[in-house]
């Protein structure tokens, strides 16, 4: 049942700029590093002589958590808005499909789009490295994949929360501004305490035991999903 | 006794202590066109949303096709098509894609899309983005979406709201066709008595969340009978003729006002007046408006 809802959602997000956004994030990050390395190529090449790829990855990593938070916020909001805009909820939820399936389909769609972004980021990193002539050193594929996906898993609590809020409120001002605020706060959260979930994406990329934070993110994400799905399944639709 | 399709018992919905719908007992038989009538804010949409499981009743029972709604929601909704208030559509998609998005959830054959487009006469327009459609076309698309799953019960909330006369006419004839052709039961709501009158066989009137009247439209017409107004060249003499024929009546502003009567009697009276040499300028029937009818219902306590 969820797959049917997902295939319908797949159709509905056409031409809404959602795919564009999913592409824009990683392409923007890579373009920024292209500029960074392009402008001071000789300097950086010399500085990272021992490990070019590591140097490139270290330069990309600081921007990944905030990009994920912002991207997640906007994608959740845009997906929800497809239904909010012409009050299609009443039509959709009066169809013979369970509300949980509708909720899970939206979640899956959102996760899928972000996964595409993460993959693009990894692919873009490899491409940029090769263009910069780092091909002489072996490509650290595992590390390259980790840039996107480790942080992605750790960002799950916020993504789950944003999806819940975006689906609940017709007016997207609150969910979007909250998402923006969380993104900005996340830049400083890492200086506070590692118990703060907002800092987990950063820690998942740079801490000593990064997998711990990715795992914690996935778990807390599931915990946030439960009340979200429950609320969505029970609320009155108007 | 006809099969009952929708039955509600003591349905109650409260918002912050204020009852939007209370003690509502609906009873809709199979193959009927049921007109659900009431002024804006009377609780029509709230009731319909409850019937579709979009909102939960505070208390009371809903049975559709003889099954409890709360427990068998998906099973019931499979046989129900609905259009709730303003049309729902995805403006950036074509009519075809709008229906396809719903079809994927309903899991009906693709050929059904062409069929429903044909039923609502939107064939030829299906490739255009829906945001460019007129309100009437959007409303028809909504009905097409409601018909997509070949429902046995069609629930239409204010399907003619905001349409121009020709749009209203189209939707009306479409709705009237359905029970005959496809054996569908239709629940249609409106705030216009004249609208319901032309479509429905049975009517339920709701006021401030309570059902104040539920009976056949023929019975309603007798209850809400209006009068006949004749503009003639010599009203006084015409009145005499009318009284002599036992039609009763009175003069108001130079017009002859007669109580409601059968078509045959009207034609006889008019014939006699013409033969007496009266010139007849107008024969008009005045119906009570819904508001007047309500006032009567409120004033009289009950019908």
From TrEMBL, chain A:
Keywords: Membrane, Transmembrane, Transmembrane helix
Ranges that cross the membrane: 20-39, 59-82, 103-132, 144-167, 174-192, 212-233
Listed Pfam families: ABC2_membrane_4 (PF12730)
PANTHER family the record matches: INTEGRAL MEMBRANE PROTEIN-RELATED, MEMBRANE PROTEIN
Protein name stated in the entry: ABC transporter permease
Automatic annotation (TrEMBL), chain B:
SUPFAM superfamilies: P-loop containing nucleoside triphosphate hydrolases
UniProt xrefs under InterPro entries: AAA+_ATPase (IPR003593), ABC_transporter-like_ATP-bd (IPR003439), ABC_transporter-like_CS (IPR017871), P-loop_NTPase (IPR027417)
GO molecular function per UniProt: ATP binding
Domain ABC transporter: residue ranges: 6-233
Keywords, sorted A to Z: ATP-binding, Nucleotide-binding, Transport
Transmembrane residue ranges: none
PANTHER family assigned: ABC TRANSPORTER, ATP-BINDING PROTEIN
Similarity comment: family membership: Belongs to the ABC transporter superfamily.
The name this protein goes by in its record: ABC transporter ATP-binding protein
Organism classification: Bacteria, Bacillati, Bacillota, Bacilli, Bacillales
């Amino acid at each position: 049942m969820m797959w049917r809802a997902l295939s319908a959602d797949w159709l509905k997000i056409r031409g809404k700029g959602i795919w564009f956004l999913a592409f824009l994030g990683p392409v923007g990050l890579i373009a920024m590093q292209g500029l960074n390395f392009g402008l001071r190529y000789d300097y950086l090449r010399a500085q990272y002589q021992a490990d070019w790829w590591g140097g490139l990855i270290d330069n990309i990593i600081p921007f990944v958590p905030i990009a994920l938070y912002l991207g997640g916020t906007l994608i959740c909001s845009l997906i929800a808005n497809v239904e909010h805009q012409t009050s299609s909820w009443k039509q959709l939820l009066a169809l013979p499909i369970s509300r949980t399936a509708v909720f899970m389909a939206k979640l899956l769609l959102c996760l899928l789009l972000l996964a595409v972004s993460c993959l693009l980021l990894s692919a873009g990193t490899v491409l940029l490295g090769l263009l910069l002539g780092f091909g002489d050193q072996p490509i650290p594929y595992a590390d390259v994949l980790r840039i996107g996906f480790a942080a992605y898993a750790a960002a799950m609590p916020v993504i789950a929360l944003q999806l819940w809020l975006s689906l609940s409120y017709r007016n997207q001002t609150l969910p979007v501004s909250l998402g923006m605020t969380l993104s900005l706060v996340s830049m400083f959260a890492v200086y506070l305490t590692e118990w703060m979930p907002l800092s987990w994406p950063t820690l998942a990329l740079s801490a000593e035991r990064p997998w711990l934070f990715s795992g914690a993110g996935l778990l807390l994400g599931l915990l946030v999903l439960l009340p979200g799905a429950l609320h969505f399944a029970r609320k009155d639709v108007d | 006794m006809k099969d009952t399709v929708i039955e509600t018992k003591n349905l109650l919905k409260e918002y912050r202590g204020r009852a939007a719908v209370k003690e509502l007992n609906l009873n809709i038989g199979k193959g009927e066109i049921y007109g659900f009538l009431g002024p804006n804010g009377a609780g029509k949409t709230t009731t319909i949303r409850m019937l579709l499981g979009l909102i939960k009743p505070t208390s009371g029972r809903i049975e559709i096709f003889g099954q409890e709604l709360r427990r068998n929601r998906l099973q019931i909704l499979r046989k129900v098509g609905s259009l709730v208030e303003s049309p729902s559509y995805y403006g950036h998609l074509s009519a075809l894609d709008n229906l396809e998005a719903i079809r994927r959830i309903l899991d009906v054959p693709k050929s059904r899309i062409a069929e429903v487009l044909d039923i609502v006469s939107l064939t030829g327009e299906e490739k255009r983005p829906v945001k460019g459609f007129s309100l009437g076309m959007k409303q028809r698309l909504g009905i097409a979406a409601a018909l997509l799953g070949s429902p046995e019960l069609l629930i239409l909330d204010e399907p003619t709201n905001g349409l121009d006369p020709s749009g209203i006419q189209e939707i009306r004839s479409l709705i009237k066709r359905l029970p005959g052709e496809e054996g569908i039961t239709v629940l249609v709501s409106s705030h216009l008595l004249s609208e319901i009158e032309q479509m429905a066989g049975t009517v339920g009137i709701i006021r401030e969340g309570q059902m104040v009247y539920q009976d056949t439209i023929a019975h309603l017409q007798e209850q809400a009978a209006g009068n006949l107004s004749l503009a003639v060249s010599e009203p006084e003499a015409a009145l005499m003729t009318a009284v002599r024929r036992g039609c009763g009546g009175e003069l108001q502003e130079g017009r002859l006002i007669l109580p409601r009567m059968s078509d045959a009697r009207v034609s006889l009276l008019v014939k006699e007046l013409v033969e007496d040499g009266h010139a007849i300028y107008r024969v008009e029937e005045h119906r009570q408006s819904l508001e007047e009818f309500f006032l009567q219902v409120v004033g009289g306590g009950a019908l």
